[in-house]
Design brief:
Layout (H helix, E strand, L loop, with lengths): L3 E3 L1 H15 L6 H11 L21 H13 L1 H10 L1 E3 L3 E4 L8 E5 L5 E4 L7 E2 L2 E2 H7 L7 E3 L1
Parallel strand pairs: 1-2
Antiparallel strand pairs: 3-7, 3-8, 4-5, 4-6
Length: 148
């Protein structure tokens, strides 16, 4: 069975529950996570100040919103992630150069050729890259990377 892919904020949130479990402040992180996920949408949030267990998660406001949005739209997948394990999705980035009419760096994986065009990916032509790829293959353009 394939592991569920989750955003990085989900992993950060769940690791905080695991830390509470390790400090004996929580009996079972998995049960707590599933309870928080299930309670969201019933007057409570999974990660914000209004979580039913009153945990103080170390998440920024943006991360709380990202987590709440993910849980709202993927409640079953989030529970499956807790039960079966998960993989963290890597964030993808576009490379956009200022002053070039918001054109995106296009990269041919087959020829390793680059040009500016729209953001549509086709076959071996990529416009979204992981930060690892940018740092290894296109380090000179890292400063122009924006989250896709």
């Amino acid at each position: 069975m394939n592991k569920v892919k989750v955003p990085a904020v989900f992993d950060k949130w769940y690791k905080q529950l695991k830390q509470l479990e390790n400090k004996n402040e929580l009996c079972d992180a998995s049960e707590a996570a599933m309870f928080l996920i299930s309670a969201q949408g019933h007057g409570y949030s999974a990660a914000g100040e209004r979580n039913i267990m009153k945990f103080d998660f170390d998440l920024t406001g943006y991360e709380q919103n990202e987590m709440l949005y993910y849980i709202h739209n993927n409640k079953v997948e989030a529970i499956r992630a807790i039960l079966d394990g998960y993989e963290v999705e890597k964030k993808l980035y576009h490379i956009i150069f200022p002053g070039f009419n918001d054109e995106y760096l296009n990269y041919s994986k087959a020829t390793k050729r680059m040009w500016l065009d729209d953001e549509e990916e086709q076959g071996h032509i990529k416009t979204k890259f992981t930060m690892d790829f940018i740092e290894e293959e296109l380090p000179q353009y890292k400063q122009f990377a924006v989250e896709a």
